[in-house]
Amino acid sequence: MTRCHICTTCGAQFAPTDDPPQRCPICEDERQYVGWSGQQWITLDDLRQNHKNQLRDDLGLVGIGTQPSFAIGQRALLVHTAQGNLLWDCITLIDDETVGEVRKLGGIEAIAISHPHHYSSMVEWSRAFDAPVLLHDADRQWVMRADSCIEFWSGETKTLWDGMTLIRAGGHFEGGTVLHWPAGAEGRGALLTGDILQVAQDRRWVSFMYSFPNYIPLPAAEIERIASAVEPFEFDRIYGAWWDRNVASDAKNAVRRSAERYKRMINP
Ligand SMILES: [Zn+2]
Ligand SMILES: [Zn+2]
What we know:
- By secondary structure, the protein is of the alpha+beta class.
- It is 21% helix and 24% strand.
- It has helices spanning 25-28, 44-50, 96-104, 122-129, 220-230, 251-266; strands at 6-7, 41-42, 52-58, 61-67, 76-79, 86-88, 110-112, 133-136, 150-153, 157-159, 165-168, 177-181, 190-194, 198-199, 206-207, 237-240, 246-247.
- A seven-stranded mixed β-sheet has the order 3-4-5-6-7-8-9. The protein has a six-stranded mixed β-sheet with strand order 10-11-12-13-16-17, covered by helices on one side.
- A hairpin with a 5-residue loop joins strand 10 and strand 11 (165-168).
- Helix 5 (220-230) packs antiparallel against helix 6 (251-266).
- The radius of gyration is 18 Å and the shape is globular.
- The termini are far apart.
- It binds zinc ion (ZN) (2 copies).
- Residues 7, 9-10, 12, 24, 26-27 line the site of one zinc ion.
């Protein structure tokens, strides 16, 4: 039977095939890893048997995450604006209950994703809400389930509605994207960054890595590129990739001082 298989380590859903794919290119890439028990696959139907999504407030935004944690364990964020909701980043599990709850909150106008580790079940989410998926063109090769719902954008920024902007920051991935939401943080502005700017355990700081699981740093030139990509935008808050991983305030200074500290450590 033809099914869309899902890699259990990165959560990416693949194009339909009879048998599971031989390998997951996202996990074989040096930024990820193949699970310690070898490459494993699951389907959405199987995942629904013992996982549920939780919708809850995360510093003023509705977060959507899976319990128990699956794959990378990120939570998506629903950015509410007058002209419709943007789903920032994506998760693998989608079920009727989640679709119903999100519809009650106004549905989804478009989905934007920071980088391939969060591509997850983006095509399923797109179909459930009839919403396009906006991905940076530079990471096109990491799309494992091609679909006409995916709209690639190129260049350094893409303007959305209600003043929102997608910014190519690069670093972790060439097309690594962050979202600027000017109405965020009570009008002081917010960045939604996935792990392109990774909120640190000390949440007054962020960091930047080529690979987080494999501890591969980025060169100074890339740190400068990321910092200068977000510098023109006003923001006081950063929403990271996981529940409560946020810089609540003074985030612009947090980026500046974090970039300086990083460069000092790799190139004293
Ligand atoms: Zn994978
Ligand atoms: Zn990542």
